[in-house]
Structure formats: structure tokens, C-alpha cells
Amino acid sequence: TDVFMEVEDKQRKLIEYAHEHNLSWNEILFMGDDIPDYECMLKAALPCCPADAAAEIKQISKYISFFKGGKGCVRDVIEKVLKLQNNWDMNTEPPAV
């Protein structure tokens, strides 16, 4: 899993990332909240957004979290995906270090 911050051209970065990791658009979830995310969300198979996203982003999202940005929306989306893939693990023990 990779996280990119302060990316000027999000669409170019997403295309590069997909190419580097041999991913098709059908394998990409993109979470955005504002207009700079719009084009990437149109490409992704699963565009998602937080509850407080811009109206234009909500219109194209396939999943809108009940949580606002910075208030649990990413965790919400990750949990939903893992549950749908039957990969949700309720193991409460921390991993060995």
C-alpha cells in the first residue's frame, strides 16, 4: 500500500502507479473529496468519498462514507472492502514484532 501526499498532477500519478504495478482500472479504488480528485475518480473502478466531500465528487462516487474526512472515512472504506473480500480479521491480538 502506498500513500502519496501533495501530488500536483493526481491523474498522471495514478496512471504511473497503475502502470508500475500492472493494475487495470477495474482493480483501483480511489478516494477523493474535492474537484482535483474528479478525473481520477472517473477512471477508478470504485470511486469513494467522505461524507463532507464536494457535491460533484459525491455525484460520481459509488460509495460515500458516513464519516467525514479525517474522522474515520478511510478506515470505513478499508473495512468495507476487506469484508466484501472475506478478508476481515477480528483477531484483536497485535502482530508480533
Provide an overview of this structure.
The structure is a single chain. With 97 residues, this protein is α/β, with parallel strands linked by helices. It has one domain: HAD superfamily/HAD-like (Rossmann fold, 3-Layer(aba) Sandwich). The chain is built from four helices and three strands, in the order αβαβαβα. Strands 1-2-3 form a three-stranded parallel β-sheet. Strand 2, helix 3 and strand 3 form a beta-alpha-beta unit. The two termini are 19 Å apart. The mean pLDDT is 92.
* Proportion of residues in β-strands: 5-15%
In terms of per-residue confidence, which ranges show pLDDT below 50 for 5 or more consecutive residues? none
* Full CATH superfamily name: HAD superfamily/HAD-like
Please report the distance between the alpha carbons of the first and last residues: 19 Å
Structural shape: globular
What is the β-strand count?
3
